[in-house]
Specification:
It is a single chain. This protein is of the alpha/beta class. The chain has helices at residues 56-67, 83-94, 155-170, 182-186, 189-192, 206-209, 219-223, 263-276, 281-298; strands at 4-8, 12-18, 49-52, 72-76, 97-99, 110-117, 120-126, 144-148, 174-178, 201-205, 229-233, 239-243, 247-250. It contains nine helices and 13 strands.
């Protein structure tokens, strides 16, 4: 049966640059305005790679690709009517995702430029615009509401998100929240407390969730917040989970890769997709770990989960 998924979170355009280690000046003896200088960076053979970054939009993209057009996927986000926003919007539409509003003029899209040097990386991050959580109350209530924290959240966002989740829960929506590291940095545990009773599924890493349970990140302890179920993402170690009936752990197959951006967002999408079709929590976590592992192995963000190449055909001429 077709279902309606609604994701709220930001959209990040990533540009990954893989550079040669220790070849910043490409052998130049001295700075020269017409040649390579000490300030130049030489890229490796791989060209720059554009992709969706780690964000709510990546979860929506993955849900769209998993749904194959069967389900409705809505996204409450902020996109600029710039080149990066146009590309991201095109990718989302290509996956079957409908944004609540089109790219906005005079708005700059959140952009992340990544310089990858083997296992290390340096980043430049423009954080973009704030997401209006209450915009998710417009239109028909979804079957599943997925909220993702992001870098611009403030303490007030905790109260706003709690209100949105409460209203959607009353309308029958299943509520999923991944606060990321951002909410713990902006709001206290007491400020977050009103949100938890409305949450059917809480997702996050050990470090992201521990501040809400007196430093403990075990799923059983986190259940005491009042949420229905908890899944703790543990990277290369897999994921642990618990609900009122049982708990467990799923081990991941380790892969030799250094770029994990998008793995957590893809994990969230596959987890919610499995639960929506009636899978047991343990089975949904197992499938989510597997798809997230593929993202890490492919090193192309959420696109790697589906063997996708970033589509650019059909873009409006303004982009």
């Amino acid at each position: 049966m077709a279902q309606r998924f609604h994701v709220a979170g930001n959209t990040v355009f990533d540009l990954r640059l893989e550079q040669w280690p220790d070849r910043a000046n490409h052998g130049a003896a001295a700075p020269d305005p017409d040649r390579w200088t000490q300030t130049n960076v030489v890229l490796a053979e791989n060209p720059p790679i554009p992709m969706l970054g780690g964000c709510g939009a990546a979860t929506a993209y993955a849900l769209g690709r998993l749904s194959h057009g069967l389900h409705r996927i809505d996204l409450n986000t902020r996109l600029g009517a710039d080149l990066f926003g146009g590309l991201a919007h095109h990718w989302l539409l290509h996956a079957g995702v409908e944004t609540l509003t089109p790219p906005e003029p005079a708005v700059a899209t959140s952009t992340h430029v990544i310089h990858a040097e083997g296992a290390g990386r340096r980043s430049a991050f423009y954080r973009g615009q704030r997401v209006d959580w209450h915009r998710s109350l417009q239109g028909l209530a979804p079957d599943w509401f997925v909220a993702a924290g992001y870098g611009l959240v403030e303490a007030a966002d905790a109260e706003q998100l709690a209100d949105v989740c409460a209203q959607l829960a009353k309308k029958g929506a299943r509520i999923v929240v991944d606060p990321g590291p951002w909410f713990a940095q902006a709001a206290t545990a007491d400020q977050m407390a009103p949100l938890w009773p409305h949450v059917d599924l809480l997702i996050g890493t050990d470090a992201e969730l521990a501040p809400y349970a007196d430093g403990s990140a075990t799923p059983r302890d986190l259940l005491q917040l009042g949420v229905g179920a908890v899944v703790v993402k543990q990277g290369a170690d897999g994921a642990s989970w618990a609900n009122a009936q049982q708990d467990g752990h799923t081990q991941a197959n380790r892969v030799d890769a250094a770029y994990s951006v998008g793995a957590g967002d893809t994990f969230n999408a596959r987890l919610v997709f499995g639960l929506a079709r009636g899978d047991e929590l343990s089975d949904a976590v197992r499938a989510a770990v597997g798809l997230a592992t593929r993202v890490v192995a492919e090193e192309r963000g959420v696109f790697g989960a589906f063997g996708d190449q970033p589509a650019v055909e059909g873009l409006d001429s303004q982009f």
